[in-house]
Amino acid sequence: MSARTVSTRRTATTVAGALLAAGALLSVSACGAGQISQTANQVAAINGANQTFVDQKIALTDVHVLFPVAGSQGKLAFVVTNLNAHQGDKLKGISDEKGRFATISGDTTLAPNGSLYGTAPAGSDTKASGVTRLTVSVPVDANWRPGLTNKLWFHLEKAGSLPIDVPIDAGAAPASAAGITPTAGEHGAGEGSGGH
After folding, report:
1. I want to staple 92 with a disulfide (CB 3.0 to 4.6 A). Which of 41, 59, 104, 155 is the partner?
2. Is 40 exposed, middle or buried (0-12, 13-18, 19+ CB in 10 A)?
């Protein structure tokens, strides 16, 4: 074997090794490219609608009608948060698309950086420290069904009327009790299920 053949083989082996190393490095670095982790953009697992009105400095979170609905009234759960650190506000009323108003009992004053809480969902701590809890009933009809939303307006003294599409909560009972017929492979709301 000549010196030239050995030198060519060494060069070829070195080049091949370098190419393999570069390929391995690229495949490892590209493995997660373009992917978003499952927890990067997740929001809290809550039942209701959420809307932040940046200009009015008001956030509405977890807005939903509690299941079951009794007669023509439904209990409304929500959190209204005043994002303004210097100016308070007041919840004047809540109305639906037909102009009907909710019945609200409790102090509706919204302190700077404060929150108002609607009717407590089952299992909530109704005596939590620092929580101003209201009792709110909204008129409901056949349009209020699990899986659908209806528009409500939160009328505030300073922030004005803020619209939000509100769902009815299917509740903790099996889905069939809430008017939903599960298809094969689906679980009722009361059964455990795994994560993503």
Report:
1. 155
2. exposed
